[in-house]
């Protein structure tokens, strides 16, 4: 493990306050981070952290070097990015980050075809809702929903592919059943709508909250209640139906992002071209227009 990685471990502990937080941020195990910080302290012949019951606090020596270490880590990342950008082979590592539902419901067939066409590319698919730091090479390509009217960071190269729309869904059989109330099924940061009430549907006084979307989707399919879903997820599910009279909301826009230093790398361009083409082909589904077009012809 070279000193560049040790600096990253030092910075991660300084930022996260605990070895566990640093290990999670770097996708390493707890012991590896401890050993890396210990090696850096041994190399510098000084203690960089004080161990407290609540975590790790920088010593005066650690505080003195943390800004310089951040600059060195950033320079290391830029060097790696420049070298990566010069690599025009169709082999080597390639990391794609995207929301889990985009991977499973929209792109897995395309990614399978890409893998078959370029077997020497070591594709890593990172399904997550968190935003990867492309500048730090946490990923090479990111497919992201940028909420509201915001734009991606200036240091990223991106193209807007389509709008991202959501609507309220419930189990088809339960939406017409008034024998018992339905619950609001909420995500971690969701709130019960304040400006819309489902017409003709009794809602329970208490909501049910979920930590992630897939279990919330299954709860809606089972008839537990009503939930907000991406249109491409809810419209494709035969057990679900949009709640009559419910709003269809333009939640944000789908962007395909790469770092300016690596966007011209051949394997990055090949993957981006595939994703761009398929996302434009399914844009009606993502924008909720496919279900509307179907209902117009019924």
From TrEMBL:
Keyword Transcription included in the entry's annotation: yes
One GO term (biological process): DNA-templated transcription
Cross-referenced InterPro entries: LysR-type_TF_proteobact-type (IPR058163), LysR_HTH_N (IPR000847), LysR_subst-bd (IPR005119), WH-like_DNA-bd_sf (IPR036388), WH_DNA-bd_sf (IPR036390)
GO molecular function annotation: DNA-binding transcription factor activity; sequence-specific DNA binding
Ranges for domain HTH lysR-type: 1-59
SUPFAM superfamilies per UniProt: Periplasmic binding protein-like II (SSF53850), Winged helix' DNA-binding domain (SSF46785)
Protein family (similarity comment): Belongs to the LysR transcriptional regulatory family.
Protein name: LysR family transcriptional regulator
